[in-house]
Write a structure and sequence with these properties.
Elements (H helix, E strand, L loop, with lengths): L11 E2 L11 E6 L2 E6 L8 E4 H13 L6
Antiparallel strand pairs: 1-2, 2-3, 3-4
Length: 69
């Protein structure tokens, strides 16, 4: 299958992610875009956000808007 879209280089996990953790999201940048993916499936789907969308998501996460508990 041919991949479309930007090529994201170095993927990073949160510094809060546990060493052997399996529930991690990774993020990478490509110009003005940010990609998010599931660390358990690095070849899977990537959510791509522009800088405004990325900034909004980070602010919402910090405010607890996406807490599951």
């Amino acid at each position: 299958m041919k991949r479309l879209g930007p090529s994201f280089g170095h993927w990073r996990k949160s510094s809060r992610s546990q060493a052997g953790g399996t529930e991690c999201v990774e993020v990478a940048g490509a110009g003005t875009l940010r990609g998010l993916r599931d660390s358990k499936d690095p070849g899977g789907a990537v959510v791509i956000l522009g800088l405004d969308g990325w900034t909004s998501l980070v602010e919402e996460i910090r405010s607890g808007a996406h807490d599951l508990a």
